[in-house]
Amino acid sequence: MKKIVVFAPHPDDELAGAGGSMLKWKKEGHDVHIIYITDGRAAYRYEREKGRLFETEETMNTTEDELAEIRMKEIDEVTEFLGFPKENIHKFKILDQDAKNHIREGIELSKNIIKDADRIVLPSNNNSHSDHQATYEIAIGAAKELDLKDVEFFGYSLYVAHKDPREKVIKIRIKNYRDNVFEAMSKYKSQLAISVVKIYYDTIKRKRVEFFGKYSLSDIGKYYNF
Q1: What is the pLDDT of residues 187-198, one digit of tens each?
Q2: Domain ranges for the chain
C-alpha cells in the first residue's frame, strides 16, 4: 500500500487533475490524502474579471467570505461521497488568489502530511495561474526540505500545455471511474456558474485517460513541467 498525497490549488482541481486516478488508487487499497491549498473565495471575482461568469442572483449577492464557507462545505460533501476518510482531507484555507504570498506557510503545513508519502500528485510547473504555480512550489519546497528522494511525483496539467517528454508520461485509464467523478464534480455546485468549468465538467463523461508526468526529486528544474 502506498501513501498518495494529492495537492489541489482550489476545491475541484483534485477531480479535474486526478479524479479518476484517485478513485482507482483508493480501490487498489492505497492511502489517498488530499491537500486543498486555497479556500476558493475569489472564484466569482476572478471569473467575472475574465468574462467567464454566468451572473445570477447568487453570484452577485454572495460575499467572498460566504463563498469560501460554501466551498469548504462542498469539499466535505464531495469527499464523503467518494469515500475518503475525513482524516485524509487537509484544508489549508489560504486566501484564494493569494497563495504566492503564503508559500512558506504552505510548506510548513505540508511537511507533516507528506513526510511519509510514496507519491505526490501536484500541478505542473510553469503554470499561468498563480495559485497553481504556488501549489507546485509549496509541494516541491516541502519535498526538498524533507529530502524525499524516494518519492515519485505525478504532475498534472490543467489549462496549460502538457509538455512532459514521452518517456516521462504516465497514462491511467479511468473509464470505470468517470461517472463517479462526474457526479462528484456536480456537487461543486458553486462552480457551475463559471462557463469554462461547466464545459470541463461536461467532458468528464467522455474522459478515458488521465495523463501525468512522472518524476523524481532529482528531476526538479530539468523539465518544463517539473
Answers
A1: 999 999 999 887
A2: 3-215
pTM comes to 0.96
Residue 163 cell numbers, joined: 509538455
CA proximity to 20, closest of 225, 213, 206, 226: 206
DSSP string, 112-128: HHHTT-SEEEEEPSS-S
203 CB neighbour count, 10 Å cutoff: 11
- Give the number of other Cβ atoms within 10 Å of residue 206's Cβ: 9
CATH H-level, domain 3-215: superfamily: LmbE-like (3.40.50.10320)
**Beta strand residue intervals within 114-196, DSSP E:** 119-123, 152-156, 169-173
| Cβ count within 10 A of residue 62 | 19
Residues in contact with 200: Cβ distance below 8 Å, sequence separation at least 6, in sequence order = 16
Q: Which three cell numbers stand for residue 221?
A: 528544474
Determine contact, residues 41/49, Cβ cutoff 8 Å: no
- Give the pLDDT confidence score for residue 179 in this predicted structure: 94
